[in-house]
Amino acid sequence: MLTQVLTGLVGLPIFLVAIYAGALPLTLLTMVLAIIAVVEMQNFLRAKSIATSSLVYWFPILYLWAVHAGAVWLGLQLVVALCAALLVRQLITFPAFSLAEVGANLLAALYPSLLLGNLLLLRAEAGLIWAFAAVVGVWAYDSFAYLIGVQFGRLRPWRDISPKKSVEGALGGLLGSVLVFALVHDYLRIALTGAIALGILVGVVGQLGDLAESALKRYVGVKDSGTLLPGHGGVLDRFDSLMFSATAVYWIWTAITL
């Protein structure tokens, strides 16, 4: 627990400073995180004896730079190019063709890169307050869920995926994310009821992101995605919820500003 807290005390300010700075500092940080996350995904594949491709390591660099440059159209074409390159790579080795390898390598590249890219888009297009609210909202959800889950957690419906998570902890986490968005709703220029709904959405989607990553780990038989962050595990372990929640917040912001 102490190691986890200390890592958070060091890591969270660095991440918030990058969010505040935006532009190149945030792009470089998310690029590093995405590359590490892709490495972790590739390790998942190797654990299941699925052949991996070095092509996927270039994708987060190129895609996130395209997002940073405001060339989202180019980012889409990079997704197309990756699909084509992985398929051609399999065709070259025919008849040792594996559709599973194509799909698994695509997931390894796209999952962290596209979701972290949405955090960049949220900061660049919606602005600082929206990005801060997404990050702090997820942090509040995780903190409240942990504290309340430890004290009062009894109902654990996700035992096969994440045995320590409880319904009580999830409800406590929702309280945390709702409080964050309720406190900043004036700055977000949305009604209080809308902020409460957004806080609930962030909590629910963040929990789904956490469970999705836990399901990947259970499938390959590992406890953590990595060891980079003491007390937390790997990048996917720490940022799984944020990647999903930031994406949801970006979608909502896009929808209400159309």
Q: Which labels suit this protein?
A:
258 residues, mainly alpha, 79% helix
Helix and strand topology:
Layout: H1 2-21, H2 23-47, H3 58-68, H4 72-92, H5 99-126, H6 128-152, H7 167-183, H8 185-188, H9 192-220, H10 235-257
Helix pairs in contact: 1-2, 2-3, 2-5, 3-4, 3-5, 4-5, 5-6, 5-10, 6-7, 6-9, 6-10, 7-9, 9-10
Give the CA-based shape. globular
Structural class: mainly alpha
Number of helices: 10
Number of domains: 1
Compute the average pLDDT: 90
Q: What proportion strand?
A: under 5%
- Sequence stretches where pLDDT stays below 50 over 5 or more residues: none
Distance between the termini: 44 Å
**Largest beta-sheet characterization:** none
Rg (CA only): 19 Å
- Helix coverage percent: over 70%
Oligomer: single chain
The ordered string of helix (H) and strand (E) elements is HHHHHHHHHH
Work out the number of β strands. Answer: 0
Detailed description of the structure:
The chain has about 260 residues and is an all-alpha fold. The protein has one domain (about 1-255). Helix content is about 80%, strand content about 0%. The protein is built from 10 helices and no strands. The protein has helices spanning about 1-20, 25-45, 60-70, 70-90, 100-125, 130-150, 165-185, 185-190, 190-220, 235-255. α5 (about 100-125) crosses α6 (about 130-150) and α6 (about 130-150) packs across α9. The longest helix has 29 residues, at about 190-220. The radius of gyration is 19 Å and the shape is globular. The model has no long low-confidence stretch (mean pLDDT about 90).
